Amino acid sequence: MKGPLLGAMFSRHIKRHPGLVPLIGFISVGLGSAVLYLLRLALYSPDVSWDRKNNPEPWNKLGPTDQYKFMAVSTDYKSLKKDRPSF
Fold first, then answer.
1. What is the tens place of the pLDDT at every residue in 45-65?
2. Which of 16, 30, 63, 75 is the 20 to 30 Å CA partner of 86?
3. DSSP count for the chain of H helices, then E strands
4. Cα(51)–Cα(79) distance, rounded to whole angstroms?
5. Which of 6, 60, 29 is nearest to 68 (CA)?
6. What is the mean pLDDT of residues 24-46?
7. Which one has a higher pLDDT value, 57 or 32?
């Protein structure tokens, strides 16, 4: 004999306790934001090197006007000049 499906049990539980809807919503938004932020760090951060053969040091290829921080409060990256040597 088959038991009730997980979705059916979840919807029945939510109908009995409607106060859990905001809690589940906030937890879902928090988990989704954390996953998106970790994906952003893994894909766009210059500290992470996924391909060591073709790009062993990705931080050396950043230009002086590349913004790699999530939020820059007082730095205007477009007006910066290159002050380091090219390798």
1. 766 777 777 766 766 776 666
2. 75
3. 2, 0
4. 31
5. 60
6. 90
7. 32
